[in-house]
């Protein structure tokens, strides 16, 4: 074995600062780096939710932590954030716009009773974050079980094979009831969709164990990779339960990828090579095997450590190629080529040496060193936009190295980059560092070791630094009944795994909290292998070197605002008059002027969600023939689909106990009048009912009119006047205004657009294709609710609504549009019964699974906070989670449990 001579260089800051001053190229790179991260300050978001999964009808309670990516302190940049609920079809089902106070916000999302069982995700971001890669938005995938169909529990397993270039899938679905009894000899109708297209449909029956076998064929495996299996189980005559089951993959093929440390395998340079074995479902797979050269000589053994990942050491020799001979768990074997060995080059590696030090090593071979001997090479380390270490040395024959104290690095991912004398990046390595001074020590102390059902719990919370100094901190607390909500700690989303790891790494990380739960030497090593295999970029070095900064199109939002552009024949209207008014919650009128680009903005507003506005624009000469286009603040399209590895094919079987409890809880609340359900269906139903009209602003209730005209009747009409003519006896339209015979000679009928009273001649300014429904009410009983304004009849026009609770109608005639931006979402209070008060209902069963939720646990200057609440009727183990950070960006998390007898 060839021995390497290393020059160990230890640099101290004062010496290096003097060196840097003489190196203009390095100084320029550092200046550009600092300039970029000053102008492109980035934010990170974490949502602490009360539970890891939910049922239809539930509330998702969450607290948002928005931090500056460089300092980890609460962000002072954005004052508004967005939270989206996204379904498995990548449709935004709900959007919340929330105010931020010192980087913190909280709220809740109500999961409608009509929501379908399946995989969902929460996406959170600020308007400022839209300037950067969507991969760094906060995303959390979770399961939602359906309490309406909880009588049917499914468990699906897939088997895979190939024949004649086709992928064959056998789906075995077990149907049973919530008590575990199988549905025997029941009819099952099914359809198969691959890549969004129906490929198969059929009918089968369950066997004596409740199993149904469905055969699926993928004729285009080179294009199609996944799909959906929809089943309809006939329990009894007239009673059918529908299930939608993801086909996460149509094969069990495993791919193995190799990642040489530092980027390359180089002749005569011993290095480590990480690898990752990933199945077609996106999850890591266990493999074993060995590395051999093209002569058949074995040079290394390979075996996965965690989540399909591992590493081996290799000394590549000239003129040889290498391959991995891999054995899978089923005993099959396959060969995979390793990356080509380069005849010359230089690589950067990092090795942990004990708990406190790191060996940073630069290695090269004779061919490369002979051409670059004596030239300066620089190692630069940065963390979250901060340069935390720089060192330079002249290249010796075989490279150079240095021992570094890990105490000098902050907590988080550190990017190490090797540059040549022209400051071109040559090699990179990511490491993770944990520094105790960056953590907040949280203590959670109940006043008793064990409690009774409905007993009062008093909790003392303390937050201190590693040096035992008390800190003012913003924390959140959730308490759950673990018997009803079993939790796997490695699968949780935590403030540590999200802000320190996932928020800085692109690509899917399997169970990121595994690396932060009960950390030991193995998990530290596993995390290091993850960083050798995972792709990662928040910026591009080449762009920094050339000072090519990306454009910033989105501003950090400080207040709610209304903005847009006014044009006339596609030319900007300069110094035009814009009036915005609303009658929602009282009359609101405000005016603005357009600038030289025809743009206007009215900021410093405060309005709740669902507020409706009318925007009127005129030229400087008060002409109304202009067009208005409103800015869509915060509305971000869904560009990143669900990762296959995040999907679960067995929703309700994995949370059967929780679904059963949730159903009991909601029935108890409904029985006692504490909640109402306007959409809740029977436990089992064939067809889900829908409201007759969507988004109606009719004060009598949607559909309560003399005549309702739907979108289907309007689709071929050139204008609304044409569409409405002759539809109602006694109604006439003259010069674009509507009159009724019983009130001829009086004023025209009142037109109401999405709840806004508009002028009578507004009718033909509305494009029929934008209308969801028109409700026509003659003068009389139905219009009395509108007072004198309804005396001549009322025409309620309801426009179509886009996704994400956002409506902007910009196709209306010149000078006037209806506009409904996303306002602030009203925050609800988490309900906790007070069993020590007489007015609390004590005869009602308490099925709560989330016992307590508090997003505003604030420790005082002594580092202390106190909370109290009452237990539910569930006995067993209750789990308390407290997370948060202090004003200096120290993160903390504490989990404890107590017994309820």
UniProtKB/TrEMBL annotation:
Cellular component GO terms, alphabetical: cell outer membrane
Signal peptide: 1-21
Domain annotation TonB-dependent receptor plug: ranges: 707-794
Protein localization: Cell outer membrane
Topological relation to the membrane, as annotated: Multi-pass membrane protein
Sorted UniProt keywords: Cell outer membrane, Membrane, Receptor, Signal, Transmembrane, Transmembrane beta strand, Transport
Chain segments annotated as transmembrane: none
Coarse class of the protein's main subcellular location: membrane
InterPro entries on file: Plug_dom (IPR012910), Plug_dom_sf (IPR037066), TonB-dep_rcpt-like (IPR039426)
Domain of life from the UniProt record: Bacteria
Family: Belongs to the TonB-dependent receptor family.
Name of this protein: TonB-dependent receptor plug domain-containing protein
Originating species: Pedobacter puniceum
Highest classification ranks of the organism: Bacteria, Pseudomonadati, Bacteroidota, Sphingobacteriia, Sphingobacteriales
